[in-house]
């Protein structure tokens, strides 16, 4: 976006809605409807199989297809997704990381096809493409969990993609360094700024050292780096965070990379305000939370976001409907077009309060950046578990504040009396649901695609990709060839899995423990855990499992930490496990209870598989509990399928949950429950 002179009215930011579900056709209809409502940019949500490099018919994809985004399996799906949307005129954000190169190659291929169909010069059209691929793998290891490959090969894919886009798609942002999920994983403002900038340093160093970009072109690389941040409800602190972020980015790019052009050093960032901060209890309160969070990144002109997307009020309940997304878009439009916000210079220049807070965040971030660099940089700090353990500890501290009441959540731990909400009178119809037939249709469609394509061309392109992966060659051209040949998402990722291997990131669970507020209640529950263990003649053991492809591990990690603190022996193997793996671990470890965490909406598919697997293994007496974003009607279905307890975000007191889990164990063992 162009920046105005001081006396001009600022242009509104790009307005997006994070959207996509079911199928490419359904998502295309949604995008075109949103654009007609005044949305000025597209933000594509991909489903978890696409994000993790699997086709819809892979066993790990079961229950996940089309749930949290749109499934894109091949070039045919990408054509359908953008049918009737001229890509040369669009501004598209794609929330995709490990397979970012693949999805951008599909996007570029569709743009080429559109150019040829219109009789336009292909290179001219590619030069007009604007948008962003998230492509930040470091935060995937730390928070979101949709990584595939180890850090080294992942950085290579990012470097190759940046080098290719700088030369061929110069207006595209090839990486959107994403601190958003770091905050959701517990990062303080200082940690969010520090770890995002450490990621930027790792990426820029990798590009510079790859030799693919001339020294004089590093300014072009820096100018195309964008950021994607989180804005919480403490909007003064969040606004100061962004001012500190901008100042540090300017400093690093000038001093470390020698970028002399101030415009190239400008912090370019987009925002989604905090989704995991939204509450299931009294969800109507989420409306004012969203508005206040939006102010944090729009009030200060010197640190104003250039793209904003807002969650819907009911995202803590399930998938928002089109009407809910429209409401979120209208919030942005009212602020941008009805108020006078964009008519003034920066409102906070010269504020002693703001300057002091900005200086505090900058000083803390510098210290943490230096600490990470001393460890060897962001990749080393991921591999050692340092950054992950810091986030787990910070989130544990936040949760202790909520449980003690020191951190107030209106409608949750204070002011919780309420009237019935007219916004929820529709019951299950108050959220969008994805018909299970969507997955069957996607599986059948990808099977038909494989039957109709040129298998010889597919095999040639995959062989060339494997060969290139074994060298230091840039992988983007080989990936483009795969896209044009009709290779599927799973085949592209599978070929690179063969060469690069897969990765399991540290969980960070061992770093956090209870202290301070709530310790007395923890000791009470610990006594119950120890007494129950004594009655059974062994220590109580709990398996915490993440079935399916859902990588949101924050809740599972906090449950594991609190279970350990209350005396359970905890088995937690991280994310992305099949029901069979969870069953095998439960039987092998002889656990007394299995706790499953599912936030992706696949609970009705993957949870019963675990229950059935335990019965088949002769361990049907092991109780299973479930936590996640689970609508009330679904919770009833799960209980009917044999689930002992269902916990949702309204159950925020972890120590009380541990107490209830002791009751579950005692019930299953035939012991009296007080």
From TrEMBL:
Keyword Cell division: no
Keywords for the protein's UniProt record, in alphabetical order: Cobalamin, Cobalt, Isomerase, Metal-binding
One family name in Pfam for this protein: B12-binding
Cofactor: adenosylcob(III)alamin
Residue span(s) of domain B12-binding: 539-668
Keyword Repeat (UniProt): no
An example Gene Ontology molecular-function term: methylmalonyl-CoA mutase activity
Assembly: Heterodimer of an alpha and a beta chain.
Family: Belongs to the methylmalonyl-CoA mutase family.
Protein name per the record: (R)-ethylmalonyl-CoA mutase
């Amino acid at each position: 976006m162009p920046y105005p002179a001081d006396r001009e009215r600022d242009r509104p930011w790009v307005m997006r809605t994070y959207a996509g579900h079911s199928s490419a056709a359904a998502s295309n209809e949604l995008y075109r409807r949103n654009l007609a409502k005044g949305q000025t940019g597209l933000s594509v949500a991909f489903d978890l199989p696409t994000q993790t490099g699997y086709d819809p018919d892979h066993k790990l994809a079961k229950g996940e297809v089309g749930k949290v985004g749109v499934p894109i399996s091949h070039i045919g799906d990408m054509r359908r997704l953008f049918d009737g949307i001229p890509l040369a005129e669009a501004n598209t954000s794609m929330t995709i990381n490990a397979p970012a190169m693949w999805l951008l190659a599909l996007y570029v291929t569709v743009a080429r096809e559109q150019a040829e169909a219109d009789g336009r010069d292909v290179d001219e059209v590619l030069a007009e493409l604007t948008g962003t691929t998230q492509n930040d793998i470091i935060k995937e290891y730390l928070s979101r969990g949709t990584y595939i490959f180890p850090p080294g090969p992942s950085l290579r894919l990012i470097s190759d993609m940046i080098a290719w886009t700088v030369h061929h798609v110069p207006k595209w942002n090839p990486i959107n360094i994403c601190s958003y999920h770091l905050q959701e994983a517990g990062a303080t403002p200082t940690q969010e700024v520090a770890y995002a900038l450490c990621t930027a340093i790792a990426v820029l160093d990798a590009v510079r050292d790859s030799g693919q970009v001339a020294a004089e072109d590093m300014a072009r690389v820096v100018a195309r780096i964008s950021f994607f941040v989180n804005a919480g409800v403490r909007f003064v602190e969040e606004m100061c965070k962004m001012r500190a972020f901008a100042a540090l980015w300017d400093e690093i790019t000038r001093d470390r990379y020698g970028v002399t052009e101030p415009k190239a050093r400008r912090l370019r960032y987009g925002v989604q305000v905090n989704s995991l901060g939204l509450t299931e209890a009294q969800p109507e309160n989420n409306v004012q939370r969203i508005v206040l969070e939006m102010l944090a990144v729009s009030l200060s002109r010197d640190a104003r976001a250039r793209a904003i997307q807002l969650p819907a009020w009911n995202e803590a309940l399930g998938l928002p409907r089109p009407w809910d997304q429209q409401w979120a878009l209208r919030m942005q439009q009212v602020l941008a077009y009805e108020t006078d916000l964009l008519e003034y210079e920066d409102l906070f220049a010269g504020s002693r309060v703001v300057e002091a807070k900005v200086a505090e965040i900058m000083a803390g971030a510098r210290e943490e950046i230096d600490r990470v660099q001393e460890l060897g940089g962001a990749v080393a700090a991921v591999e050692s578990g340092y950054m992950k353990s810091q986030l787990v500890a910070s989130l544990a501290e936040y949760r202790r504040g909520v449980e003690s009441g020191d951190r107030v959540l209106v409608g949750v731990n204070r002011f919780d009396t309420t009237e019935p909400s007219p916004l929820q009178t529709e019951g299950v119809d108050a959220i969008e649901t994805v018909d299970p037939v969507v997955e069957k249709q996607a599986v059948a469609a990808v099977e038909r695609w494989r039957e109709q394509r040129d298998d010889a061309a597919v095999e040639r392109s995959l062989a060339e990709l494997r060969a290139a992966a074994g060298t230091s060659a840039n992988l983007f051209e080989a990936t483009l060839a795969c896209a044009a040949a009709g290779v599927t998402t799973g085949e592209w990722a599978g070929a690179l899995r063969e060469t690069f291997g897969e990765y399991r990131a540290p969980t960070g669970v061992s770093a956090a423990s209870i202290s301070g507020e709530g310790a007395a209640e923890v000791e009470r529950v610990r006594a119950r855990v120890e007494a129950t263990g004594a009655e059974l003649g062994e220590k109580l053991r709990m398996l915490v499992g993440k079935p399916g492809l859902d990588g949101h591990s924050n809740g599972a990690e906090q449950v594991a930490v609190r279970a350990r603190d209350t005396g359970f022996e905890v088995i937690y193997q991280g994310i992305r496990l099949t029901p069979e793996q969870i069953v095998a671990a439960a039987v092998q470890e002889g656990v007394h209870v299995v706790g499953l965490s599912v936030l992706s909406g696949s609970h009705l598919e993957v949870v019963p598989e675990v229950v059935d697997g335990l019965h088949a293994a002769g361990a049907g007496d092991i109780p299973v509990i479930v936590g996640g974003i689970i609508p009330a009607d679904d919770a009833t279905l799960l209980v009917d399928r044999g689930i002992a307890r269902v916990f949702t975000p309204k159950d925020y007191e972890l120590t009380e949950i541990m107490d209830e889990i002791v009751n579950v164990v005692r019930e299953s063992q035939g012991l009296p429950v007080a």
